[in-house]
Specification:
Length: 568
Amino acid sequence: MITNKEIARIFDEIADILEVKEGDKFKIRAYRKAARTIESLTQDLSDFSSVTELKKLPSIGDALAKKIHEIITSGKLEYYEELRTSVPEGVLELLSIPNVGPKTVSKLYNECNVTDIESLELAAKNHRLQHLFGMGRKTEERILKGIEQYRRHKERIPLGKAYFQAKNIVKSLENLDAVERIAFAGSIRRMRETIGDIDILVASENPSRVMSAFKALDGITEIIASGDTKSSVIMDDTQVDLRVVRDDSFGSALQYFTGSQLHNIKLRELALKQGLKLNEYGVFKGDQPVAGKREEEVYEALGLPFIPPELREDQGEIEAAIEGELPDLIELNRIKGDLHIHSRWSDGKNSIEEVVDKARSLGYEYVAICDHSPAIGITRGVNEEKLLDEIIEIERINEDLSDFKVLTGIEVDIRSDNTLDLPDKILEKLDIVLAAVHTKFSQSKDAMTRRIISAIKNPHVDIIAHPTGRLIGKRDPYDLDIEAVLDAARDTRTILEINANPRRLDLKDIHARYAKEKGVKVAISTDAHDISQMELMPFGVATARRGWLEPEDVLNTRSLDELMRNLK
DNA sequence: GCCGTTTTCGGCCCGACTGTTTTCAGTCG
């Protein structure tokens, strides 16, 4: 069965081929837009029974609906098969090289017999490119640099890493006299799970001062571009873009630089319809600015409420804003406790007392200590006997606490034979039971779905932890029928975790949104193995926000009493 | 190829930076 991801890839590849063949750019955009739509669907395209159903999807019209239908019914697409014979595969890969776009690729292929990255590198090194029309020595060098950059990092950077790097850059520039305001923008501000580069925005009357301070920062290994108001550098293997505008334009520049690109395009189209123009300098009526200083004003000038950055993915947020139906998103300060923490009783680094101190410093009212069960030897899980001791210890700790409660819990392993690693008679003694898969990730979709649903159906299991098991950039999620899992969770009032660790973010944003649609509640938990990791909660909250979740959708916004009533 | 409370045909976002082609095309975000 063909997956959505594969269909999206086919459409992207068609767009690539059309681009190299210098086809109609709007048609190319249509294929790319459709690919984005398909990628963000939670439902399998192969479950769509008719062309009419497919056409209801945004950016899918008659022609593309028929093509999708052809793919899901026959397994292939005639148009694509024919198209791909016209351009070698290696040629398309050239498009991923920075500074190399479709026009260049087309020229290289047609006039210089370049068919892949290796032959391009050779041609550039032998100076066979600089004599082509429109190319010169510097272009040749730029291409070689691009190849090097492409080989160095193809992968997007995990949010967890980029976020702190961006914060550090802001910190090292914010005290300059020339800097009036500074913020990071781009996909980090939208809190996407991975990011391509770091975008920093500064308001200043003296851009050149800011630029030179920026370019002198520690860790910069290369300056890619350097203009009056915009510079790009490579810093610690990551591209960092800095843009400077006047304070009057800071709001609109922040809006522009935050993206996403699709969100911005739709917003500018909306502006045009109202006889306005939107760019990074402001909202304009004719050449008269009507907004720009603050980001809120930009949306207001277009007749919209403020749209939080996490929603700006062109996933219906602009339509919802027009209708006045934006969600009232959950915020970090609504979180009343962390429901997935490991202590020294299994593989955690800290004592339960240390966890409590940390939780109180974060303003929480409760935590749940959920150590591992024995199945996974490496984590020194707690067996029945040890767990009973741990319960006693927690009771003792609770006696000394006022206005705070430690919940007894476990992260019980769901074994590959669908049974749990500890018997019900001990699970029932606990305040809260998390269940999770830690082994045999490669089971079939059916088997894995049955495995998780069997845990969901256990009367003591309250929460499924990291439900899809992915490690971002390292391990794919296991094959799972997410819809069936959500249905089972709803029917049994089982909660699904959003694991806040930026390596996981699991459930991910679109699954969180799907959970809400299905009426399934989530818990946002850090899975901390060290009390410092309890500070990772904002990443989980951001993922929930990207999933359009509101405080009532999240279990651990509840007071302790309410929380207990919501557990099985 | 999509889409429509101005449109079923004629639109489809916007500007910075670079290099090269002495006025602009290509790439990027």
